[in-house]
Amino acid sequence: MAVIFRRGFLILVSFLVVYLSHQPSLKPPLELFPHQDKLFHMIEFGGLGLALVLNRDIFGKKHPRTAMLFSGVAWAVLDEFHQSFVPGRDSSLQDVAADAAGLVIAVFLFFRLFKNRAMLPGSRKTKD
């Protein structure tokens, strides 16, 4: 049952990234500091990083973090490419960098928080 929720979370986050990318204009109601959109990019892809870590069992046993980071950064590049076709949106390497930073922070933070790998979802010692 837990596997269904983990997979569902990954699908939900993936669709949320696509949905947000397809919006013609995403302006925050209040601009607090310059380039605050980069913070939103980091948060968005931090959520994707969390979803990937929760579903780490789909990446195999060898180097799952590398596979997660590669697939997440590939998703960020495709996301920015997609935005280049959406009216009112643009794509930039700075956005990809912010996406990748959020992804890397989330993946490594989540793995670090669970020093005991048996506690991670998808581990053989947990009851999924």
How does this structure look, described?
The chain has 128 residues and is mostly helical. The protein has one domain (2-21, 37-119). It is 62% helix and 0% strand. The chain contains four helices and no strands. It has helices at residues 2-21, 36-54, 64-83, 93-113. Helix 1 (2-21) packs antiparallel against helix 2 (36-54) and helix 2 crosses helix 3. The longest helix has 21 residues, at 93-113. The chain starts with a helix and ends in a 15-residue tail after the last helix.
Question: Main traits of this protein?
Answer:
mainly alpha, 4 helices, about 0% strand, about 130 residues
What is the strand and helix layout of this fold?
Elements: H1 2-21, H2 36-54, H3 64-83, H4 93-113
Summarize the structure.
The chain is mainly alpha-helical.
Which structural class matches the secondary elements? mainly alpha
How many strand segments? Answer: 0
Biggest sheet overview: none
N/C terminus separation: 7 Å
Low-confidence stretches: none
